[in-house]
Design a protein that fits this description.
Layout lengths: L1 H38 L6 H18 L11 H21 L3 H7 L2 H12 L3 H7 L2 H14 L3 H9 L1 H23 L12 H22 L6 H4 L9 H32 L3 H4 L9 H18 L2
Length: about 300
């Protein structure tokens, strides 16, 4: 099993780097959150900090912990990584409204550079990343494409492509959940009533894939047929567990926000509360922080 040994060694060498990067991100976010808290105590509440840090922790479990090593031996573990990146970690990170705290947590020089870079971002990109159809297609494409046997085996046999696969899962997850979470209510956003339908349609590719993995009766990915056995699971049993795990987790992950959004829409007076929905910050707060942003950096500038 030379490739498994090689994969273990490479993952082990990357784990400290991944851990350091995630801890650094969490530190910068917390630093920025404290600065914003001092300037505007109610703008970004404590639960957003908790959501972001929880998202970082889930990313560490998927990418930097010992669990990450086992995805070359168990399809179930690979599916857990996929779900942690796309279905759990991504929405928690977005709920933390990370853009502003990360900017305010940077040293003064990098803060100004990030603002300059942001001001030069082409409007087309901002429009594209705010388009719910594009975000939906990005999420569906990542799920379907990386589970095509040829691409899946490429990621399992190449460390570089495995990194690309993990990065695309996380990126697609952030794009997919953006229209749902909507951290800034000033963003161009689709009608709220379309979001339950958005989630309902997104469940179909996952349901089809999970049903196929569970009931096809054959091992789809040859790399797991020759991998060392863990927990006394045969390759086919492992594949069935992975399919069942995907179906259950995706169903609940999409059903719960769909029900919450539907209840918000049907509740009398919801139109007046749209700006204060749990996922969003009110437009006045966004305008206010644009003025506080520089003041905070000047006050605590490095």
């Amino acid at each position: 099993m030379p490739f498994e040994i090689h994969a273990h060694a490479q993952q082990g060498s990357l784990s400290p780097l991944i851990t350091f990067g995630l801890v650094l991100l969490a530190f910068v976010y917390c630093r920025g959150w404290l600065r914003i808290r001092n300037a505007s105590p109610t703008l970004i509440p404590l639960w957003r900090l908790a959501a972001f840090v929880s998202g970082m922790f889930l990313l560490w479990i998927a990418l930097g912990s010992r669990l990450a090593v086992l995805d070359h031996q168990l399809l179930t573990v690979h599916m857990m990584k996929h779900l942690l990146l796309m279905t759990a970690g991504a929405p928690l990170i977005l709920l933390g409204a990370p853009s502003l705290p990360l900017q305010c947590g940077l040293p003064k020089y990098f803060m100004h550079r990030s603002l300059l870079l942001r001001s030069r971002t082409p409007p087309l990109f901002a429009h594209l990343f705010s388009n719910s159809i594009f975000c939906w297609l990005a999420g569906a494409a990542a799920v379907i494409a990386w589970h095509i046997p040829a691409l899946f085996n490429l990621a399992m046999s190449s460390h570089t492509w495995h990194i690309v696969q993990d990065a695309s899962f996380l990126s697609a997850g952030l794009l997919f959940w953006r229209p749902i979470v909507q951290p800034w209510s000033s963003d161009a956003k689709p009608p709220r009533w379309s979001m339950p339908l958005y989630l309902f349609l997104a469940a179909f590719p996952c349901d089809i894939l999970s049903a196929f993995l569970t009931f096809c009766g054959r091992v789809v990915y040859p790399s797991y047929a020759s991998a060392a056995r863990v927990f006394n699971l045969s390759p086919l049993q492992d594949q069935e567990c992975a399919g069942a795990l995907m179906w259950v987790c995706v169903t609940f992950a999409y059903l719960i926000p769909a029900v919450v959004i539907t209840m918000q829409i049907l509740t009398p007076g919801d139109v007046n509360r749209q700006g204060n929905a749990p996922g969003m910050l009110p437009p006045l707060a966004v305008a206010k922080v644009s003025g506080v942003e520089v003041e905070v950096v000047q006050r605590y500038g490095d």
